[in-house]
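Q: Could you predict the 3D structure of Class I SAM-dependent methyltransferase?
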Amino acid sequence: MPGSSARDFYDDLAPDYHLLFPDWDVSMARQARSLDALVRRHLGPGARRILDCACGIGTQSIGLALAGHRLVGSDLSPVAAARAVTEAAARGVDLPATAADMRALPFASTAFDVVVCADNSLPHLLTAQDVTTALHGMRRVLRDDGLLIITIRAYDEIRRTRPTSAPPQVAQTSDGKAITFQLWHWHEDGERYDLEHFQLIPTGNTWTVRVRRTTSWALTSRQLTDLARAAGFTDLTWHTPPTSGHYQPILTARRGCP
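A: Sure. Here are the predicted structure tokens for Class I SAM-dependent methyltransferase:
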């Protein structure tokens, strides 16, 4: 099955991305609570300078900005980044966002207190070299002792069971309920998979069917921990959904002082 680039995938998905959630604003608020709690636990109270380096349409950035933090967004998809700016403004917060590859972040060194890379974005990088390059860049833009937050799918279990689909999600639209589901086609290496992303969107008396394709690397917690440690991060800790309240496992790490 031929795939598409991650940029093409998210450029095409950006107008419909909110339909991945039953209620996007509710999900933004819920995720902001769990991520803000981690920021405060590690760095203490107060507004922080946060880079969301895979901001998409603003799912994490907007919620964190509403919580009082100073956000900057970047995303491989210029269409998604532009929508994030618009959606933030509609909710009364400022979110400067730019199109940028997380492997070449266009920001000054030590510019941020926190870097967030959420929603299973990092696994779109398919080699250890690319992940390492991205992690080095995240470390560069963090201040000394700054906080890295990465969220990915629960790949330890997924790698063991190799599911061929993900549960459908249903979202309400003005015309009815939109349905999103995924099919996964595993590579022979057992680590990477091609994803077919289907959205069925009600249109009058029929459905509009949209299919998008991309590839991901099912990074285990051990693999990502080792790569982050090799990139110079310290105090690496995994937080599970029952303890963090977040819907995906979270890795936190510190830049460390020279």
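Q: Anything worth pointing out?
A: The CA atoms of residues 56 and 199 lie 18 Å apart.
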